[in-house]
């Protein structure tokens, strides 16, 4: 099972909704679950997300969205909803800084 290489947010500015979907897909892959089982307001630790998966998630976010994040980002923003909101802010500040 793998997440498609094409990113649906690649040609548009990512929204909290599109990032939430991307995160749910990615986390479901790590946890060998269906993305529909991953709820945006449930702490990721409750699903069994461990430090190895959290670091992998951080690396995937950095690679796919060209961000530099603290390795603790999944613990600092422990739900998909919180993490997606943080990523939107980071991407917006990056866009603002590059123009």
Automatic annotation (TrEMBL):
InterPro entries noted in UniProt: ACP-like_sf, PKS_PP-bd, PP-bd_ACP
Pfam families, per the entry: PP-binding
GO molecular function per UniProt: phosphopantetheine binding
Keyword Phosphoprotein: yes
Stretch forming the signal peptide: none
Domain Carrier as annotated: residue spans: 17-91
Listed GO biological process terms: antibiotic biosynthetic process
Gene3D superfamilies: ACP-like (1.10.1200.10)
The entry's keywords: Phosphopantetheine, Phosphoprotein
Full protein name: Polyketide synthase
Biological source species: Streptomyces acidicola
